[in-house]
Each structure stands twice: as C-alpha cells, then as structure tokens.
Amino acid sequence: MPPDRNARAGKKRGGRSGKVADFRYKRAPQPDPRKRGRDGRSNGIAQAGHPRPVHDLDAIGTLRPGHPGEAYAALDLGTNNCRLLIARPSGRDFTVIDAFSRVVKLGEGLATSGQLSDKAMDRTLAALTICAEKLQRRNVRLARSVATEACRRAANGFDFIERVRRETGIALDIISAEEEARLAVLGCHILLEAGDGPAMIFDIGGGSTELVLVEAGGPEASRVPRILDWQSVPWGVVSLTDTVGRSEEGETARLARYTQMRKLVSDSFAPFAARVSEAAGHEDIRLLGTSGTVTTLASLYLELPSYDRKAVDGLIVPAPAMRDISARLSVMTPYERSNLPCIGQDRADLVVAGCAILETILDLWPARRLGVADRGIREGILRSLMAAELRSESSLRALQQQRSGGATS
Question: What pLDDT is stored for residue 2 in this prediction?
Fold first, then answer.
C-alpha cells in the first residue's frame, strides 16, 4: 500500500447522458466489408452486427456448445489499452481459451492535438497484428472488434480504422458512449453486491468515463439489470492527464494538480449527480467499478506483490480505504509510484487521474463499499454474441417446427 504522506486533496467539460429506454444509436460509417486486406484476402472471420439493447438481453440462458473447437472473440481497442478475449461457450458461461492485453497509448497527446499520432498508431497496429494472428489460429466462429473514445474523438480516427482493416483484416467498429456503457454493464453486472438498493456501475477508461445507474435488486443474478440513467464524460486517465499536464515538481504542485483534476471531473458530472441525488440517499446503495484504476487500487489494498486477477475480480473493498489509497498516490512522485507493486512504469503517470475520477464518483455516489471487476466490455461483447446466436438458433428451430407441423396437417 502507498505510504501515508499525510496529505489530502479537497475537492469544463461536458459529457453525454440521458435516461435510457433503448441503446439504439446511429452507426458510424464503416469500411466496405467486401474489400480485402493488403494481400487481397480477408481474415475469414465473421464480423458481428450490433446486439440487442441491454434490457432485452434478460439472461444468457444455456449456451450451445457449438462445433468442437469453435470459439468467439471480443476485441476492445481503448484509448490506453488493446485487449482481446477468445472463449468457447460452457453451460451458462464461457471458458476463456486465449487472451491478449497491451498498453498501446493510442490516445497519447490526443487531448491537445485532436489527432492520433503516428507513433501511437504504429504501436497499436503492432498489437492488433498479434490479435489478428490469434484470431486466425483459434478457429473463431464469430468476432466483434470495437474502438472507443480515442477513435471517436480523433480527427483521423476513421482513417486509422481503415488502415487497421487494410493491414490486419480486423474491422473495428467505433461504438458510441451509450454502447460502451451497455457492454460494460453486460460484462460485469453479475459481480454487483447483493442488496435491495439502487446500484451504480462505472467504467474509467483512457479517454472517457461512463457512469450507469441500474435498477434496484433483481430477480436473479444472471438477469441483466435495467438501466435507468447514464452519463459519459470525456475524462479518462489519458485525456485528464494530458489536459491538466504532467508536471509534478514538488508536493504542493502535485496536490494542486490533483485538485484541478477533481474539479474538472466534478463539473462534468454535475448534471448527472443532480439527477441521481435522490437515489444516492438510499440506505443500501451499491457500487461496482470496472477499469485498470479500480483493479490497481484493489491490488494495493490487498498488498499483492504482483497482480492476481483471481484475488481482485469480485473483491469488495471499503470505500474509505480506496479514498485513502487515492490520496496517498496523489502526492507521491512518479518514481515512488512506479516502484509500487502492480503499478509500474506503464501506470505511474496515469493512475493519479484515475484516482481523481474515482474519488469524484465516490462523492456523488457515497457507497460504503466498492465492488471491483476485472471484466467489462470484452465479456459484454462475448455474451452479446453468444446470446444472439442462441436466439437465432431458437428462432430457426421454431420456424422448422412450424413448417414441419404445417406439412403434416
């Protein structure tokens, strides 16, 4: 755990939000699927369309086993990370057979330039090339690959998507903030702490943060909770760090920088905070977070010598403990942070922004405990793909039975 430096931080940009009846959205322009890669071939993997809204995906049900060796894949290209998950259906869940994660810093400098840099795109393409090779090797039946805030915001985002398609065969879909929130809920809601009160699920990304208010309780853990309200703000660990600046000379300057981060995020979340204030006053509110920020802080809470997903995923942590860790990290030097287990060089300059976002969320949704999820968009994509296949097969069987009945009558 970070050493106590006996320092504490006190407490505009707009976001996207709204009460959700349906998560349909206008699809961004996509590359022509009939075109081929640079060698004239496609990658041979079916690309999935958009799944149904979250409140229509009531339960996954029993997933069909499919043909031997068949797999599904989900690729999430974020502002900071590139992540791939390949899995096979297994009963009411799925078994992961391959995974890949790399810090690519695609959105580095985007907040100030408005463009994806050449170096960032090259780093990301190198990672996506590895993903393409894994997709080929693993007999993937159906895949969905999504890109989020960095590609949504960058002036050259669509050009980069086309370059990825040409050079790797991967057809990335730039999804909306609404869809990003929906997939995060679908991927991690099962880890919500039991209770009758309203719940908040959040995802702190590299370029944006999504907050989702979901209905209280629920008939069963496998049922996806109905979304009542949501907001996305353009503050993630990369965009907030780049906007405020990376200068950390002296403890006073570090504390002032952290306070500025807190204010920017708080101002952006203010409309949403006002809308959910009544629900936030409930005695039994619950909170669940999915992001590198919460898993990293949970690792520090557990004092792990190295990251252990099994220890972190599903952990319930006292909220005051997460605030305390955040406050200590905010006044440490980058060198001190980089030497902490589970942070290292990759996260040392970004974790403070994550702490500022987390503390702001705890201000507007003051739950006593925080659930930690090392799962999210990728798992949501996999469940969407598998559920869509299940519905399709059920519809086909019903049609065949109907035709068979008509033929014998």
Answer: 55
